[in-house]
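Bug #2210: token dump truncated for Sulfotransferase?
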Amino acid sequence: MDLPPRPVPFDFHGVSMIKCFTDNWDNIQNFKARTDDILIAAYPKAGTTWVSYILDLLYFGQTCPERQVSVPLHERVPFLEISRPSLSTGKDLADLLPTTPRLIKTHLPVQFIPKSFWEQNSRIVYMARNAKDNAVSYFHFGHMNNVLPDPGEWTTFLTNFMDGKMVFGSWYDHVNSWWEKKQTYSNLHYMFYEDLIEDFGREMEKLCPFLGLSPSVEEKERVSALSAFDRMKQNKMTNFSTVQSMNQKVSAFMRKGIVGDWKNHFTVAQNERFDEDYKQKMKNPLLKFRCEV
Ligand code: A3P
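Reproduced locally. Full output below:
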């Protein structure tokens, strides 16, 4: 089967983007958020799917068990900005969500978030992952997902990552500007992938009060077990095996799910160059990432 050509990124209001995330722009910007909506925001490959599934289990794991086995996660938690030929747009899927709350996923940098989310004071859960593992995961994802530009060789990809020439823009700008938003918008919970890997229970103790939930011990254990990497990798509703644009023979969507895989990709010289550049871009001493746990 002939594959469609890979898209070419372009500058969109200062952020590198591709058409399938900007084609539906006016509708996205006019999206009518509700007060009880929950927006799950993250830079691509920071663990968006993991958080989406955790929230879906917390809210609907018990009340809608049939959805868990019949509706893929990406339909339960629509991707707001996506629009692909002959498929429903993420915005339309979000509009049609039958649940309360509606869980909605986005990779948009904070300045592109539809204003109704701020006006409605909707809850937002932001997931961040250390730059090195995030870059490695994005590289492999680019190879397996035909919707994205060709990532090319690792060396070139890493340079592009450092230069912010990635779809959804610079990792550095993304994590920093969402962090800054947290200082003025109190309904934003900023989470780290590494923290969740290190101590899932501890992170649930912070997340659930933010969501206004108080699940039982058994319920928390259930969420923890079902959202474990191996379980999600086996689960057809969470492993993206139903998505045509992804060639899981090239690289699995649920690839490794660890902290520190960057050590298998970065050369010593690349690591030194990356660290030097990182210091220049990440000046806020309060925003700290861990590249190992
Ligand atoms: P790797 O490619 O490093 O394995 P996103 O959902 O934002 O696209 O992020 C995908 C990354 O999150 C992948 O990273 C994937 O394996 C990881 N991930 C997904 N579910 C996970 C889980 N339950 N535990 C740990 N990592 C998970």
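Output looks complete on our side. Residues 42, 44-50, 133, 137, 140, 227-229, 232, 254-257, 261 surround adenosine-3'-5'-diphosphate (CB under 6 Å). Marking as cannot-reproduce; reopen if the truncation happens again.
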